[in-house]
Amino acid sequence: MSTPSQFAAIEWRGREVRVEYVHIAPERSDAPLVVFLHEGLGSIAMWKDFPEKLCEAGGFRGLVFSRPAYGRSTPRDADEVWDVDFMHRQAHEVLPAFFDAIGIHEKPWLFGHSDGGSISLLYASRFPDHVAGLVVLAPHIFVEDVTVANIELARRAYLDTDMPKKLGRYHDDVDSAFWGWNRIWLHPPFKQWNIENELATIRCPVLAMQGVDDEYGTLRQIRDIALHVPQTQLLEIPDCGHSPHRDQPETAIVATVSFVRRHSPDQGKRSVES
């Protein structure tokens, strides 16, 4: 990201937490606002320039932030252990508090990847009148064996390779980011985590995309979203793994801009850049 980070303070888990964020093109005051929610090991920095490219292509405003424990946001306390409801708490507690802290009172579009996609779905389920629409990339709505197996491989890589050094480029406290995510996904009770029944209250349009070669989940994840949320549009992307915005960025950008424009008729006419 080329824009310097700002910080907002929220109260969460009984203490003040600092949340890192960046605005993209705030001068486009009449444009749709797209909020980017990163993956389980993500941050503002890990998105690189994708949010800026997407916002430029669609003429959108953007808001990118690092969830607590990630990027330059406040790390986890040393004794802080996340429970099975950790994504629910991000959707129901952190996101509303963050929006209030920085004065977001409109209906944004949520663009969420992986855990960020799940959090987006949970937010739209709990607050159906507070969101214009969702674009979710490789979201999780239940736990699959392939997901757990590859997260276990990530644990081994973190312990045995230079993975901490590589992740350290994106997080002030890399252990906070990695172990918060890894330990809860490998916690045996988390295998029962399932949000399918919570999706029925989502009323906004949903674009759910996933790589055909996703190593962290099968296409059942997005196909089952469509079973519970009839207004869902599916995009299954060939030659693409778990991160469509990195593996097939142009496909993700064109599909997202087209979808947002189709469902934002009052936002003026801006062409999709290809």
Descriptive key words:
single chain; 274 residues; alpha/beta; Rossmann fold; 8-stranded mixed β-sheet; 10 helices; 8 strands; 37% helix; disordered C terminus
Q: What profile does the largest beta sheet have?
A: 8 strands, mixed
Classify the secondary structure makeup into a structural class.
Answer: alpha/beta
- The amount of helix comes to 25-40%
Please name the fourth-level CATH homologous superfamily: Alpha/Beta hydrolase fold, catalytic domain
Overall 3D shape: globular
Number of strands: 8
**Number of discrete domains:** 1
In N-to-C order, the SSE pattern is: EEEHHEHEHEHHHEHEHH
Tally the helices.
10
CATH hierarchy, class:
Alpha Beta
Lateral arrangement of strands in the main beta sheet? 1-2-4-3-5-6-7-8
**N-to-C terminal Cα separation, in Å?**
21 Å
- CATH T-level topology: Rossmann fold
Radius of gyration: 17 Å
Mean pLDDT: 94
Percent strand: 15-25%
Which CATH architecture is right? Answer: 3-Layer(aba) Sandwich
InterPro entries: AB_hydrolase_1, AB_hydrolase_fold, AB_hydrolase_sf
Keywords: Hydrolase
GO molecular function: hydrolase activity
Domain AB hydrolase-1: 34-255
